[in-house]
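Exercise: predict the fold of this chain.
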Amino acid sequence: MNTEKLQQIKSTTRSPMPAEVRLSPGAWLKKNLFYSWFSSILTITLLALAVLLIKNIAGWTFFTARWEVISANFKLFMVGQYPIEQLWRVWTALLLVSLFIGLTYGAKRGISTIMFFSVTTVYLVSIVLPFISGSSRFWLVGALVSLGVGVGIGMIVPYLKKVVGYAWILCFILVLFFIQGFGILPEVRTNTWGGLMLTMMLATIAIVFSFPIGVLFALGRASKLPIVRTISVIYIEVIRGVPLITILFMAQIMVPLFLPGGVTVDNVVRAMVGLVIFNSAYIAENVRGGLQSVPNSQVEASHALGLSTFKTTVFIVLPQALRVTIPSMVGQSISILKDTTLVATVGLLDILGIGRTVTSNPEFLGTQKEVFVFVALLFWVICFTMSVTSRKLERSLSVGHN
């Protein structure tokens, strides 16, 4: 290639990018929606259908729907049969969670920003809803104050930035203590839990406890020890091949067989065990995919530097593997949250089970649409918050851009 051609290529690559052409609103509509007679007909038809759909939904929402079914059973939807005289413990647990969310946002910002503003929005919207009682509004205002206090403490105390992640373990223990009692407060057995509280507790327990178990089985499947690898493979493949409903039924029947004589656990604990067993197998496969993405050259380099296999796994391989698996882990967490609705098949009244019970009440016959729309809206808010937080976490860790 001669010098003249090289100069032509350089001049071409250095030429400025063409300026972006901004269209007027009328020109944009003509270009994108009314480009031809077919696109014009399609646009008009879809607009007519959208207007008709919005009109019908708005008419049903504001004039036809019987939202009193939600206000009359709001306590059932939230906490099930939890004793009314002990409801202060649930609200106290909510205040604690709000305080720790505020602490995390004030100390670290980052991914906690999405959670902070999502929770704040939910509290503000809940306060103005017509079916919220006066006492509930009082506690929700307290939750907002806890958020603010947490933000203030997090910003004032710099040391919290280092430990706020571990502080959530303390928050988890305190929430369990207030809700269950553990013999110090009056005991509230788990068979009285229900509604959204039961759904969130089942999902939280399944996610928190299945994560370390899944990581261990993923490492076991990648192990060079035949016995460890075989046990891990059998566990993962057997659990993944069995439907969740089957595992829930087996947990109800078989968990008591592994307990000493005289020791009994109720259905909620058995369901938690089943969900942890099921979810840990899927997390193990997600983590295994992350382990395979780490180049073997890094392991060899760490061994060359004198690191043991344990230190190489904990400090070199595992952090990279977990970072890669964040999207799939969040997807699995959302999936297990929605799968908790299957506990209704073993007699537990999660929020969907409460909805079915309410709609079977003769007083509220014909209110299925209102109940299921309300339940779907709650699930959507939680899952959307988790999804947005996951994307924020992926961007902060630059997942997929290495």
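Check your answer against the key: The CA atoms of residues 85 and 186 lie 11 Å apart.
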